[in-house]
Design brief:
One of its GO terms (molecular function) is metal ion binding. InterPro entries: Cof (IPR000150), HAD-like_sf (IPR036412), HAD-SF_hydro_IIB (IPR006379), HAD_sf (IPR023214). Keywords: Hydrolase, Magnesium, Metal-binding. This is Cof-type HAD-IIB family hydrolase. By secondary structure, the protein is of the alpha/beta class. The chain contains ten helices and 13 strands. The strands form two sheets. The protein has a seven-stranded mixed sheet with strand order 5-4-3-2-1-12-13, with helices on both faces. Helix 2 packs parallel to helix 10.
């Protein structure tokens, strides 16, 4: 019945240290060996997620930058959608970001993560892949080949940015939260759900045979697209309110996805989580 599993990473497949635990890795590998297809769907950069996929040891499709990029298991790009150059240049200006200097501005290009200051605390999210940023003057970037702009800051500052974006750009942008302190901006035709549909069509799998897992607001379309969506018990309360009919499972810090997969696929739980 289930042919494809699509899963978010942070707050979902990864533990509280933003890493993969052995129980999850063993479960996912076993399912792939039995013929189940996997899609990793995340706001993270492709280069970062490719490293995580390698640790999982599976041939997964990668939906990255919240759907702005889709890579096949052989790393071929099968879908890409960039922000317009002029929009990117506007998104990094003080009129949008604020003049206080509290918000960290990030640009996701095809093969690079650009940031406007050194923020080594962010590298804790990338322990498995070793992915690293490059500090640049984001206001000097020409705006080309950017899949996503990411703002990191306090909730009040991000709420003001969200208001400014809505006022200036209306519905021409897709603006969402991946974490309470992470506001992400892509072009309007981007979402994890749309990207998942690209993969489903490519593999000729009906959404009715797709299982999906998520925990935050950028997972809404992913969960709405899959025939069998599941929400983490640690999910954002706003996501729970938005999708009250989606079943909730265990926590990410207790390998909740792995345990649910073993139930769905009737795998005897002979492994002991670490």
């Amino acid at each position: 019945m289930y042919k494809l599993v699509a899963t978010d990473l942070d707050g979902t497949l990864l533990n509280s240290n933003h890493q993969l635990d052995p129980f999850t890795v063993a479960t996912v590998r076993r399912l792939e060996q039995s013929g189940v297809q996997f899609v990793i769907a995340t706001g993270r950069h492709y280069c970062d997620v490719a490293g995580i996929r390698d640790i999982l040891g599976i041939r997964a499709y990668l939906v990255t930058s919240n759907g702005a990029r889709v890579h096949a298991p052989d790393d071929t790009v099968v879908h890409a959608s960039d922000l317009p150059r002029e929009v990117v240049r506007r998104l990094v200006q003080p009129e949008i970001v604020g003049t206080h200097g509290r918000v960290i501005v990030n640009l996701f290009a095809d093969d690079a993560w650009f940031i406007d200051r050194d923020a080594r605390e962010l590298l804790a999210f990338h322990q498995d892949s070793g992915f690293h940023y490059r500090v640049i003057d984001t206001r000097a970037h020409d705006g080309s080949d950017i899949a996503k702009v990411l703002y990191i800051g306090e909730a009040a500052d991000l709420a003001l940015i969200e208001e400014r974006l809505a006022h200036e750009f209306g519905d021409t942008l897709y603006v969402t939260y991946s974490l309470p302190d992470c506001l992400e901006v892509m072009t309007a035709n981007v979402s994890k759900g749309r990207a998942l549909q690209v993969v489903l069509e490519r593999l000729r799998i009906d959404a009715a045979h797709c299982v999906a897992f998520g925990d935050n607001m950028n997972d809404i379309d992913l969960l709405e697209t899959a025939g069998h969506p599941f929400m983490m018990n640690n999910a954002n309360p706003n996501l729970i309110a938005r999708l009250p009919g989606v079943p909730r499972i265990g926590n990410n810090f207790e390998a909740g996805v792995a345990h649910q997969l073993r139930k769905l696929f009737s795998i005897a739980d002979e492994l002991t989580p670490t």
